[in-house]
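re the bet — no i am not wrong, look at it urself. input seq straight from the record:
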Amino acid sequence: MLLGVPPEILISILQFLPIHDVHNFQHLSRFANDLIKNHSSSVYYNLAIYYGLASTNETLDSVLSKRKVYYDFLKEGNGDDNDGGPGVKKWKEFSMSQIHRIWISIN
């Protein structure tokens, strides 16, 4: 069933889903897991847009440079991979750390 749908279409659909639905999809099959892993940059970039962490056509460097000022002001950023600071190198790391913060603040 999923094998008949082109990967580009699935990626387009995934960009409109909340993070927990993307993770549920990833656990559906090996094909789904490989699809997310192979396209993680675009999937997590679109999740960053979905959650309002980035705007369209914005690079990760520009998002981090804006947020770095905020983090430096608040807590003298420690540069680890989990704070959205200098250690973040991929959209997945950034999106997951920021979405995790959103969920913690809600609960």
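see?? The chain has a mean pLDDT of 75. told u. also DSSP finds six helices and no strands in the chain. so pay up
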